[in-house]
Structures are given as C-alpha cells and as structure tokens.
UniProtKB/TrEMBL annotation:
Residues 205-382 form the Nephrocystin 3-like N-terminal domain. This is Uncharacterized protein. Keywords: Repeat. PANTHER family: HET DOMAIN-CONTAINING PROTEIN (PTHR10622), NACHT DOMAIN-CONTAINING PROTEIN (PTHR10622:SF13). It holds the Pfam family Ank_2. The keyword Transmembrane does not apply. SMART domains: ANK (SM00248). Residues 25-92 form the Heterokaryon incompatibility domain.
C-alpha cells in the first residue's frame, strides 16, 4: 500500500508499506474532478503543484499534521489506475465491507444489472438504513426500482412505502407485458413437427438402451464429475438414432409426469425443413419457448435485458447472442429444478455452427455445476461433423449389442420364411450385410416381401435375390428406383421435385408439379371428384417407389422417408424451373391487364389452383440455383415473362402494400427483392442498381436492403466494379469493407465497427418519389454505399441541400474512403465552395481530418491558399486550431503562402505566437521565407503577440531569429527589459 507525506522541504513523496508495517494515516474523502485535474501516482515525483487537484492533497496533508499524523492516503494518487490488478486489489476490500454492512449483493455493488435481482431482495437492501426524515427510507429506492413518483414530505414512512409499492407493481405489469411479447417471439410454426412426425419405436425396440451402463451413468448424479452431464449418441445414416431419441425423450417425460421440479426439453433438427427447423437460432428459440412455458417463474430471467435491448428484439427478432445470454441467465435461475435437454440430428444443421453450439452447451454444463443446478444434455448425430468434447459419454449405436438384437428381432418378425435350419442362412446374411443400418433392413425386407408375397418364394430364391441387393445404402436407393418399370415417367420427375423444392410441398402441389411435366394440356385446376387427397397420397408413394411419403403431422407435407435419401439423389433445378414456367404461362386465372381486389384474389387462390403459388414464388429461385450449378440461365432471363409474372404475383399477394405498382417492373428490381444473387450476376442490366422505378422501394438496391437480401446487395455492388482498375480506390475500399461480412450493414466510427443491419431500410420503408436516391443514402450513413453511388452518378458536382457538392458533404462527414473514391473521378471540382464559402480543403482542416487533408493535397488543381468567408487560409485555420499534424502537411509545399495576411492583417506566424504554441512557431520558423518583422495594420509584429500573451519561450525564439537576420537589433535579456 502506498501512502503520501510531505518532506521537510515541502515536496510530496510516496512511500510503499507492506500490510503488517502500516503506520497510522489519514484518508481524504473527496469528489473526483476532471481526469486532467487530478494528480496521479506517476506525477508525484514531478512537481504536481500546477494541477488543480493538488490543493486538496495539500489540505489533507496539513490537516493530518495538525492531528499528529505523518502519512495520509488519497485514492487518486496512491493507486496506480493504469494497473487493473492494483485497482481490483484496492477496490475489492471496500466492496466486501459495503456488502457486510448493507447486505447488498457484491455483483450489484460492482455494477451488475439491478433487474436481475427480485423485488423483495432489493427491498431488503434498505432495511437497516437510518435517515433523518422517515420518508427518505423510501424515496432513495426510486432508482433501484426504476420508478418515478413525487416527493411528499410529511406523508410518513408507511404511506411513502405504499405509494412506492404501487409504482413497482405498475412497472412490473409493463415488464410482464414486455416479457410476454418477447416470449411470443420464441415461437415459430413447425416448432415441434419433426418430433411428432417421427415414427415411434416399434414393440420393445430401443428399450435396451435404458439399461446400458452409459445411460445409467448419465442419469447418476454421483457420476456427474466423470461426464459433466453430457451424452452423445452417434451412428451411421439410417441406424435409427432419431427413433431412439424420441423414445428416450418420451420415456423421460413419462418418468417425471408427477414431478414438477424436473424439466424436459427437446429439439429435432430437420435439414429439409424451414430455416428455423435447421438452424442454431431455431434450436435456442424452441428450447426457451418450452422452458418458459413449463416454468413461468423463469420468465424473470428476461429482466437481464435493458429496455433498449428488449425493444430491439421486439423490432428485429431474437439474435443468436441474445438467445444464448437468455439461456445462461435461465440456467443460473433454475435453483432446485433439474433440466434435461435432448437435441437430435446435429448433422442436419449448418455444420459451420456445430462446434460453437456444442462448446456453448459445454459452457452451460459447467455453469450449472458452479450454480449447483442439475443439467443433462443428450445429443445424437452421424459421425460427422467431428467435434471433440472435453468431458462426456459417447456411444456408437451400430456397435451396441442391443441395437443388433433389435434388427434381428425385426427380421424374424418381417421375413416370413419359417424357423427351419435352412431359413437361418438368409436371415444371417441379411443381418451381416446390413452393417447394423436399420433403414437398409427395412427397405430390403420391403423388396423381398413385395417380390415374394405371402412367402411364395423358396428359401433358395430369397437367398439368391438377397445376394443381388447392394450392401451400401446409396446403392440400395438406386436399385429401388430402377428395379421395375412401373411409373417410370413419374419416377423421373417426382424425387427431383421433392429434392429441389424451395419448401416442403403438399401432396396436391407435388401432383400438379409432376403432371405439368407429363401432360402439356394440364390446366392446373384441381378436380376433387377426379382425384381426392387420399389418392394423391398414394400417388406420392407410387411415384417415388416408396422413398417418399406424406408425413402424419398437421401440415401433411411430402418428405423423403429418411434424410439419407435426400443425400443420395442428384438432379437439377432446371426441371422445376420449367414446371413453374409452364404454370405461369398457361394460367388462365385472370387477364394480364386486370387485377382482382385482395378478397376476390384470396377466394380464387384457395378454390381454383393449389399449385399456382409455388411456381410464382419459386420459379426464379430454381433458376438461381441452376445458375449456381453452372447451368447458364441467360436465355431464360432474356425470355422471362416479366409482365405476366408481375400480374400473377400481385394476384397472389395477401396485402395491398406488397403488390407491384402496375406491370412495368424491372427484372433487376425483382431479382434484388428476392435475393437472387446468381441471376443478378448474369443480368445484362446488373449495373442499374440505383435506377429509380415507380415501385415501393424505389431502386433495386433499396429493394434488396429493405428485404435483407444481402447477397443481392453484394452482387449489384460488385457489378459496379466491372470497369474499374484493380488499383482503384473503390476496389481497395470494397476489399477492406468485405473483410468482416456484409459491409453495407456496418459503419466505422473511429475504431469501432457498429452493426447497422436495419436502419432506414426496413420492411416498412417506402421510397418517396419527391426525394433522390442520394437523400436516402446520406440518411443511411453507410460509407461504402455512398462511395458506390457517387462513383456512378453522371454529374459528380451536382448540388442538393445547402448548395453543397457531394465532395464537400463527404469531407464534412469525415468519410475518408468515399473522398478518395471521388477524387479519382474525372472532372470532380476540388475548389468548389459550399454555402459558407469554404472549399473541401478548408472544411477538412476545420474538421481536423488529416487523412482527408492529405488526400486533397495530392489532387491536382487543389487551391491550398483559398480563403473562407472570414478571410482565413487553410494554413491559418490549422494554426489557430493548434493542429500541428495538418500544418506539417502544408509547410513542405512551395505553393503555400506562409506570409499570407487575413483582411485584418494577421499572418500565420501571428496566429501561432498568439496561441502560445511553441511547436507551431518552430515549424514556421523552419521556412526560410517566413517574414517575422512584418507588422499588421495596428503595427504589431508576431513578437508583440507573444509578449502580450506572456509566451516568453516564443519571444526568445523570435528574438534569436531577428538577431540572426538583423545583427544591429537590440538584445533583450529579460521580461522587464522587454516591457
């Protein structure tokens, strides 16, 4: 510990003592001043008397001496504030002391979020507080509870607390409504459809897992130290992992049916599902939705968010980071509740996110252990992606004896060939060939039973057929597709449509997609009498040779029987694109020139053509994917029926505001709005991103920004670079901006990059035809967009508000890179004047932006001596602002007028002498052509300004220079002589 004392000669000194050698000392209680006013520990060895904070140190030392104390302590200079360790060591004991005295939680004293503490707990913090006026026991609590109420001294303590409680309840009611709104945003459609559509384990299959040593260990709290609460089930595709996970989840739920202290959550990833069904954010949203539904009290954990944070979620939805933080706070609050989480099919989510997600769950398990909360996590996945966990139990399903027994029992039940000794051979061969892949066994038995119904084949025939069936699952899928000639025409189309559909199709949608390929005269009108829904379901199964089915959930969507079918199939989006195009072209629902109102359009959609919505919404999507796969779509775009598609799309739109205005919509605008980046890259008009159309979002770029079509924004901006050299400032700026992702969503402020994912360009944005594109780009304040726009305008010196050119505006805003881009553009006027008569150079100097000053000085035609409305040159302005960095940029130039006089006769040297900036005077005196003797109209040279301000070091510099130039000049030795 350091202590202060005054030495006999009156100087301050710091002495360091160990804890057992401390003498008695005084402590100064004071209010900190400005940072620059306080004396720091580093300044004690130097004379600190010129600092404003020295006076109170001197007072403390004198008062300590009066009380017979040699040493005293002042926090500002006895603690080295540059050392975080020393700061913590100094502050820590005081926090602990305050905690002991007041009972206030240490985390609250250290600046933690007060909303994370319950109302009763916060009220206890003031229980022992003693105040002069009884009402003051309640009034200081306003800030702790974030409430507002009037002061009414005389009402008494009881009434004051009653009013405080009322305000707290009102505030809590609002918080509750906000919480409900936030919780509602966890939900998404199909939140549990994967689980409900999974086939349950048949008979006693999978139940063996409940008695394995690994599963028992995972459930044993005494063994938690060994595995950390983690269980990971791995297996090859088709082994039955999802079926097992469903059984484990339902078994757990059954066991805790009458125990409310135990919570069970689950999430089953689905690669062919919606974005929420296959994403990490969907996982977290689903788990939190279930958690808060089962334990309402845990909703208090949402109080960790600030009001602004909550509003951001309500406006923009939950981000992955806010979801993770909410999970962390919820785990901390579990207390005596136990939590078990099942997550199936990790391989069906984005594999680039899997490792981070697994690491986060490991952190949750560690957090639960520290918080003495029981948390169990069970994962299942294929053997990839490869993610190593620090602690946990891993089980390979195909290696388990119980799994093999399940397959054996299934074969005995399904393969009806008797129990004779010869029958053992095909059964054994089937089991051996299966490699413990349950799906392979199911499909092979289907083949055998269909080819030899009712055991019509001999054991030898069945054995021979079994030898012909491939052992690899992917080869088996191929065999199923080609083994007979039934429905070959439909088979060529059906799997492809299911595979490449932008979303899962309903059976009637799939039916019409196939029919449009097979029957050129198909009208797309559904005759329920001719083909009912049950017939369509049979149609799906027969057309896919049993590899697809209609799921049993409420949505009734077509899906492959297993994800591995999807993995095995190859195909093209070309066919789906053509199917969609056929429907668009043949639809006779409405005349191109007529558009029914919203109500009539809804009725037509629901009753006439169930397949119309899919082709209109996805024809361009399939073309985009085909282009991605190097199938050129240039001819398709050239002949695309834009007007017809526009009318039909507006016909399908549920909301009037989303309809297109007329039929004259540019194809680039449509591609931008739909985020079809690959088609944009080959569109001949891809460089027209800023072209204004009479549509909701104005120009294609704004349509992409408003719909968060980030890839489309990138494609259009990169199209602007086509004719620019690789060394151009625009390419350099673009390369730097792309380093951290989509640059148009970010803005640099000093050294911090601030996300701007949604600014003025949101779904509610509507372009006003009375405003320009530049108006909105300026308002959005994203520099990279500004640069791209300005490099593409025909007249780079156009003037808008305040009679300011784009260059002057960019300089004023401090957009360094945009200025560099503009300066490369031919014809840019670097000496234009704004409404204040300032040139871009003068503006840059006034804004103290050295980078822009340097860029402007490198441009041919810049006037370094142009003056502003007050007659100051850029050099004078920089000197008066004491900006030596900018002055150094000017002085090496031969065209700079270092002896320029303002209308009042003040020269650059006069400004430097008057401000007392010795460094600046030295810089100017280094110029051999500087005139130090010229006097202004009042007869005052620079020497007078320096003397008048008491800047004696500058006086001496000027006198030395004068003597060097004029040896006869009288010598001045001191201040008095000069005066």
């Amino acid at each position: 510990m350091r202590l202060l004392k005054f030495t006999p000669d009156g100087n301050l000194s710091l002495t360091e003592f160990s804890s057992h050698q401390l003498p008695q000392y005084a402590i100064l209680s004071h209010t900190w001043g400005k940072d620059g006013d306080e004396v720091t520990s580093q300044e004690i060895p130097v004379d600190p008397r010129n600092k404003a904070g020295y006076a109170k140190i001197e007072f403390c030392g004198k008062r300590a001496a009066e009380d017979g104390l040699e040493y005293f302590w002042v926090d500002t200079c006895c603690i080295d504030k540059t050392s975080s360790a020393e700061l913590q060591e100094a502050i820590g004991p005081y926090v602990s002391m305050l905690h002991e005295i007041t009972g206030i939680a240490i985390s609250a004293l250290q600046g933690g979020d007060l909303l994370s503490f319950s109302v009763p707990e916060r009220l206890t913090w003031a229980e022992t507080r003693q105040t002069k006026r009884e009402e003051d026991e309640a009034y200081p609590l306003f800030g702790i509870f974030d409430v507002r109420m009037s002061l009414d001294y005389g009402e008494g303590k009881t009434t004051a607390f009653e009013r405080l409680q009322e305000e707290i309840c009102k505030h809590a009611g609002k918080r509750h409504r906000d919480e409900v709104s936030l919780i509602e945003q966890f939900y998404f459609t199909k939140i549990d459809e994967r689980l409900t559509s999974l086939t349950a384990a048949q008979g006693k299959t999978c139940r063996w897992f409940l008695t394995t040593a690994e599963y028992i260990s995972w459930n044993d709290t005494d063994q938690r130290q060994d595995h950390g609460g983690f269980l990971w089930i791995k297996g090859h595709p088709g082994t039955g992992k999802s079926t097992l996970m469903k059984l484990l989840f339902e078994e757990k739920k059954l066991n805790i049916k009458h125990d409310p202290s135990r919570i069970i959550l689950s999430f089953f990833f689905l690669a062919r599902g919606t974005i929420e069904e296959k994403s990490i954010t969907g996982l977290y949203r689903s788990l939190l939705h279930q958690l808060f539904a089962k334990q309402v009290d845990l909703r208090e954990t949402l109080e960790w968010m600030t009001n602004d944070g909550a509003k951001s979620v309500q406006r923009n939805g939950w981000s992955e980071e806010t979801l993770k933080q909410t999970m962390v706070h919820a785990i901390k609050k579990l207390g005596s509740w136990s939590l078990t989480i099942f997550v199936d099919a990790l391989d069906e989510c984005d594999t680039t996110q899997t490792a981070n997600m697994v690491a986060f769950f490991e952190e949750l398990c560690d957090l639960a252990e520290d918080s003495q909360v029981r948390l169990q996590v069970c994962f299942s996945s294929r053997h990839y992606p490869t993610v190593i966990i620090q602690k946990g139990i891993e089980i390979t399903l195909e290696h388990q004896v119980g799994h093999k027994d399940d397959i054996e029992q299934y074969v005995k039940y399904k393969l009806k060939i008797g129990q004779s000794k010869p029958a053992e051979s095909p059964r054994s061969e089937l089991l051996e060939n299966s490699s413990s892949i349950f799906l392979w066994v199911v499909l092979v038995l289907d083949i055998l039973n269909s080819e030899y119904p009712d055991s019509s084949g001999s054991i030898k025939e069945i054995g021979d057929r079994l030898k012909e069936i491939p052992q690899k699952l992917t080869d088996l899928f191929e065999l199923i597709l080609i083994r007979d000639e039934d429905n070959l025409d439909r088979l060529q189309i059906c799997p492809m449509v299911i595979l490449f559909a932008a979303r899962p199709m309903k059976p009637e949608e799939l039916y019409f997609a196939v029919q449009f390929k097979l029957d050129k005269k198909c009208s797309g009108i559904w005759d329920v009498v001719d083909m009912d829904l049950d017939q369509m379901k049979y149609y799906v199964r027969s057309s896919s040779k049993g590899l697809a089915e209609v799921n049993r959930n409420e949505a009734s969507e077509v899906q492959f029987i297993h994800e591995s079918v999807r993995d095995s199939l190859l195909g093209s989006h070309e066919h789906l694109r053509n199917c969609c195009l056929a429907q668009v072209n043949v639809s006779a629902l409405l005349d191109d020139s007529t558009l029914p109102n919203i109500i009539n359009a809804t009725q037509l959609r629901e009753t006439i053509s169930p397949f119309l919505g899919y082709p209109l919404h996805n024809i361009l999507h399939h073309a985009n994917i085909a282009q991605q796969n190097n199938i050129n779509q240039g001819d398709f775009l050239h002949h695309f029926p834009v007007e017809r598609w526009t009318v039909l799309s507006s016909f399908l739109e549920k909301y009037e505001v989303r309809r297109y205005r007329g039929v004259t919509v540019g194809l680039l605008y449509i591609l931008a709005e739909k985020n079809l980046a690959d088609l944009i890259q080959i569109h001949p008009g891809r460089g027209s991103a800023f072209l204004i159309e009479d549509q909701r979002y104005g120009c294609p770029l704004f349509a992409a920004l408003a719909t968060s079509s980030n890839e489309a924004v990138e494609a259009m901006l990169e199209a602007q670079l086509a004719d620019t050299p690789t060394s151009s400032q625009l390419r350099i700026f673009w390369g730097q901006s792309c380093h951290d992702g989509h640059p148009w969503l970010k803005q640099k402020r000093q050294t911090e990059v601030i996300p701007r994912a949604k600014t003025i360009f949101e779904r509610g944005f509507v372009f006003s035809q009375t405003k320009s594109v530049f108006h909105y780009i300026k308002e959005n304040r994203v520099e990279v967009l500004i640069a791209f726009y300005l490099i593409n305008v025909a007249d780079v010196d156009f003037r808008e508000i305040n009679d300011t050119t784009p260059l002057s505006w960019a300089v004023d805003q401090g957009y360094d890179s945009a200025v560099k881009v503009l300066l490369e553009k031919e014809g840019v006027n670097v000496v234009s004047r704004d409404h204040g008569f300032s040139t871009p150079l003068l503006i840059a100097v006034t804004k103290r932006n050295r980078a822009i000053v340097s860029s402007l000085l490198g441009k041919k035609g810049v006037d370094v001596n142009a003056t502003n409305f007050g007659g100051r040159s850029p050099l004078c302005q920089a000197i008066e602002q004491e900006d030596a960095g900018i002055v150094k940029l000017f002085l090496p130039r031969q065209d700079i007028r270092v002896n320029y006089r303002t209308p009042s006769g003040i020269a650059p040297l006069d400004f430097a002498a008057r401000t007392g900036d010795t460094c600046m005077v030295k810089l100017l005196l280094a110029r051999t052509d500087i005139d130090i003797n010229w006097a202004n109209r009042l007869g005052k040279p620079a020497l007078d300004y320096a003397a008048q301000g008491g800047h004696w070091d500058i006086v001496q510099l000027l006198r030395l220079r004068t003597e060097h130039e004029d040896p006869i000049a009288p010598k001045i030795s001191d201040k008095e002589e000069f005066a």
